[in-house]
Specification:
The complex is a heterodimer of chains A (256) and B (367). Chain A is an alpha/beta fold and 256 residues long. In chain A, 36% of the residues lie in helices and 25% in strands. Chain B folds into 2 domains: 4-109, STAS domain (Transcription Regulator spoIIAA), CATH 3.30.750; 137-364, no CATH class. Chain B is 72% helix and 9% strand. In chain B, a hairpin with a 2-residue loop joins strand 1 (4-10) and strand 2 (13-22). In chain B, 38% of the residues are buried. The model of chain B has no long low-confidence stretch (mean pLDDT 89). The chains are: A alpha/beta (256), B alpha/beta (367).
Chain lengths: 256, 367
């Protein structure tokens, strides 16, 4: 387990986290810290459990074992519910499919959290939501329905919605999966810009090599056969220095 | 030329000679004979002669591996062209790799356990009722999540849009009931009492029940499909991670809408049915004023309000069952369809169960 950069508090802490489905172990003994302002990438092949790990981190399902803390609040265990409720105000999530609400326009998708959790009047909510859409380059699409936009636009709109309440922490599930290289690179740049302008912390799940090398400060690699973490650290150093055959194969795009 | 298979005894073993095209069209006709012959060879040597094979694709390779698997002793492939040999090796490796991966993942097929599934389903149902109750109690604290705009939309969807169908069904049922009973009742000179029969049947039972069937078929399925699609698209997960309660945002407004529109639908059903009956009776020579008088004399406000009271609970139960079916939607394209079906079937069943309970209750209360 490598330590996060010194002098910065851990925003996300995972200790000995395991997930099992019946007799099947997806991963176990997963421990890591994500420091404030960091872009932390969880990577691994298909079926290695990276999306499952993300679901545990955002409290959508309890881990089979282990502890998870967000901003110092425990969100797992019998007394984790209160911590989870409080933590949910402090992070935003972008789901793999975008998960925009299909019965609302993009603008309404973004004003919804503002309507629910702030006392802003309607015009203020709309103004704030438009700023978020501007940030992700979708100013012209505010009135469109989710069914009317492309996959890349849906992902950007989902990031805008995750940003609605300006959370200090963002979880992104496969932001560049299924996108063309240009759109994908645009999203990577957007993530870096958001980190620099808003100072947000990002936890990103992806298996897109180009994206990992472009954005990640540190990464954690899961492997299906080892059922856990096989590497952690700076992805560029892992690419050049790792001796693990799976890590080398992943970064060199080779078959095992 | 497609494929052919010749079997021969050779050197105390068996020789299979394959020729022609071993592709998806070619392997079908010889598959059973080839694997059968391999199995029959038992412990004896098996030689598979491939020299006359002109084309072999992955279907052909699968056949060769199946022959190998069917034979208990050693199998030798002879005379294969270089391309066939390398394809066979690739496929063999892929199959072996997959098998290894599957063991690595520890995949085990769970034996179906009806009792455990039934217990789990019951437990989930009780948990759902509990969640709904908690959501209802904590509604004042989450008033913002209960959106009036959504409530009005669901009322429009469940109520106003259902009016034409309700009128048509009610009218036809009144018409049929009156016509079916008029002919036999006339023999006893009791044909005027058809008005009593139809009005009591409609107000107490058929009006609310048929309105419930309309609600379940039209709106219950739509509720389940809407929520099911949201589930498949991860929209429910998105709500939860935002700290919004799906029960308060999605289920309670739908239940409230169904409870609010059901008495209206039941009244419309009643009136349309009485209209249908009146037309039949008028065509048999009764003046409208006589029919109206008879209906007024026969049925009490208790009949009407008893029926309307029941309809409110039918609405609540149908919406709850439909939303539950939606929230329980699994993954994949079939899941939403299954949920919609479950919503309609469950809605109709629960309506009739509740109707039976009310029949006992009303009877005990002397109504």
């Amino acid at each position: 387990m490598s330590e996060p950069p010194a002098n910065r508090p851990a925003v996300v802490r995972a200790r000995d986290v395991a997930q099992r489905f019946g007799p099947r172990t997806i991963f176990e003994h997963v421990s890591f810290d994500v420091a404030a302002g960091e872009i932390f990438v969880i990577l691994g092949g298909s079926g290695s459990g990276k999306s499952t790990l993300l679901k545990l981190l955002i409290g959508l399902r309890p881990p089979s074992a282990g502890e998870i803390e967000i901003n110092g609040r425990r969100i797992t265990g019998v007394d984790g519910a209160a911590g989870l409720t409080a933590a949910r105000r402090e992070f935003g999530v972008m789901f793999q499919s975008g998960a925009l609400f299909g019965s609302m326009t993009l603008l309404e998708n973004i004003t919804l959290p503002l309507e629910m959790f702030t006392t802003m009047p309607a015009p203020a909510r709309e103004a704030v939501a438009r700023v978020k859409l501007d940030l992700v380059g979708l100013a012209d699409a505010a009135g469109l329905m989710p069914a009317e936009i492309s996959g890349g636009m849906a992902k950007r709109a989902a990031i805008a919605r995750a940003l609605a309440l300006d959370p200090p922490l963002l979880f992104l599930d496969e932001p560049s999966a299924g996108l063309d290289p240009i759109t994908s690179a645009g999203l990577d740049r957007l993530i870096l810009e958001l980190r620099d302008t808003l100072g947000a912390t990002f936890v990103v799940v992806t298996h897109e090599l180009a994206s990992i090398l472009a954005i990640a400060d540190r990464c954690l690699m899961l492997d299906v056969t080892k059922r856990g973490v096989i590497a952690e650290g700076d992805p560029r150093r892992l690419r050049d220095e790792s001796t693990d055959p799976t890590v080398r194969a992943f970064f060199r795009r080779e078959a095992l | 030329m497609t494929s052919t298979l010749e079997t021969a005894e050779r050197d105390g073993g068996v020789a299979l000679t394959l020729s022609g095209r071993l592709d998806s069209a070619g392997v079908g006709p010889i598959w059973r004979r080839a694997t059968g012959a391999a199995a029959k060879a038992g412990d004896r040597k098996l030689a598979v002669e491939l020299e006359k094979v002109t084309v072999c694709d992955t279907a052909g390779a699968a056949l060769l591996l199946a022959i190998e698997a069917a034979h208990r002793g050693p199998t030798r492939f002879e005379g294969a062209h270089e391309a066939v040999r390398s394809l066979l090796e690739n496929v063999r490796q892929a199959v072996g790799h997959e098998a290894k991966q599957a063991t690595a993942r520890g995949q085990q097929a769970d034996a179906p356990n009806v009792l455990r599934d039934a217990l789990r389903a019951t437990g989930n149902g009780i948990a759902y009722l509990g969640e709904a109750a908690v959501a209802f109690v904590s509604l004042p604290a989450r008033a913002k999540m209960f959106r009036l705009r959504d409530l009005l939309r669901y009322m429009d969807q469940a109520g106003f849009s259902a009016l034409p169908l309700t009128v048509l069904l009610g009218f036809l049922i009144g018409l049929i009931l009156a016509f079916q009973s008029l002919v036999p009742m006339r023999r006893f000179g009791a044909d005027l009492y058809v008005a009593n029969l139809v009005s009591i049947a409609l107000l107490r039972e058929l009006g609310p029940l048929l309105a419930a069937v309309v609600l379940s078929g039209r709106t219950g399925s739509a509720f389940a499909a809407e929520i099911g699609t949201m589930k498949v698209n991860e929209e429910i997960d998105a709500l939860v991670t935002m700290g919004l309660d799906p029960m308060t945002m999605l289920v309670l407004p739908r239940m409230a809408a169904a409870m609010l529109v059901m008495p209206g639908l039941a009244i419309v059903m009643d009136l349309a049915g009485l209209g249908g009956m009146s037309i039949v009776m008028m065509s048999f020579g009764f003046p409208f004023i006589t029919i109206a008088n008879q209906v007024q004399y026969a049925s009490t406000t208790g009949d009407l309000f008893g029926g309307l009271f029941k309809s409110v609970w039918f609405g609540a139960a149908i919406a709850a069952v439909a939303c539950r079916a939606g929230l329980a939607t699994g993954m994949g394209p079939r899941a939403v369809g299954l949920s919609a079906t479950a919503a309609v079937v469950g809605g109709i069943v629960i309506t009739i169960v509740i109707d039976g309970m009310f029949a006992v209750l009303f009877n005990q209360a002397g109504m």
